[in-house]
Design goal:
6 helices, alpha+beta
Length: 266
């Protein structure tokens, strides 16, 4: 049951908000969990290391991992139209990791298929970012998300996807991060990553530098027609989540070489 009144992060209406499970509850995300703040880990350990949680304060999440940010109507709409496609893909990929663990020196995993409504999959990923970023910052996605056939994904965003082979890994940033680089550039982004995949959403309009290690750019999925299940190929870099940001498991040099050749996305 909704527990408080506020504004829905997608439609903007004020009223009771429901709990949005990330990943979906149907994927087993219905058990108690602990939520740690990155700033608290840094204060305790001196650096951000997700394994350094001893003595760090946490918040108990009794219903699983998620946030209270969507009205019941929006949550129901997404559950009806998008969640099934998303969870089907995640279960298949998760089973693949369990049955065929990637080699320690493997830089990426190759996926191909065609039995996926890619627009539904993409919209579910975007809805998670609407839930986890502050109210009002992604209201421009309202039409795109609440009309399942809409291709009106705002041009200010790019969505990247990567693989997370560690079954215990979780990284959900509850807000936008601004990263500054030695070249003077900066990028504004957010992360939602849980086994077996993660996503990085970049606000291009608020950035003047795009790092080359974000993953496979899947933004073109937003232009597909509803119900299209095209043949696709994805080379998803294998990332680790034990630091402040998702980092290529094989190291930056390998990531740079893959980026120069371009991700195999179709």
């Amino acid at each position: 049951m909704p527990e408080k009144s506020d504004r829905c992060h997608v439609c903007g209406r004020e009223g009771p908000l429901s709990f949005e499970h990330i990943p979906p509850r149907s994927m087993g995300n219905n058990q108690g969990a602990r939520s740690y703040r990155g700033v608290d880990i840094i204060k305790r350990a001196g650096v951000f290391d997700a394994s350094a949680k001893d003595g760090v304060r946490f918040t108990k999440m009794r219903r699983g991992i998620g946030v209270q940010a969507l009205c019941g109507s929006c949550n129901s709409y997404f559950g009806t139209h998008y969640v099934r496609e998303y969870t089907g893909c995640m279960r298949e990929l998760g089973a693949h990791f369990v049955q065929h663990p990637p080699a320690d020196d493997a830089p990426s995993i190759h996926l191909s298929g065609g039995n996926v409504n890619v627009l539904a999959f993409f919209k579910h990923a975007v809805s998670n970012f609407c839930s986890t970023t502050p109210y009002g910052t992604m209201l421009d996605c309202r039409e795109f998300l609440l009309d399942k056939e809409s291709n009106d994904f705002p041009s200010r965003y790019r969505l990247y996807m990567f693989a997370v082979p560690d079954s215990d890994s979780v990284m959900i940033t509850t807000g936008w991060m601004v990263l500054y680089y030695a070249n003077g550039g900066s990028v504004t982004l957010a992360h939602v990553a849980t086994f077996p995949v993660g996503f990085t959403l970049v606000d291009v309009d608020a950035s003047d530098f795009i790092p080359p290690y974000l993953g496979c750019d899947i933004t073109p999925m937003a232009s597909r027609k509803w119900g299209d299940c095209p043949e696709f190929a994805l080379d998803l870099p294998l990332m680790t989540l034990d630091k402040m940001l998702p980092v290529p498991r094989a190291g930056k040099e390998g990531a740079r070489e893959r980026n120069e050749g371009g991700p195999a996305c179709a």
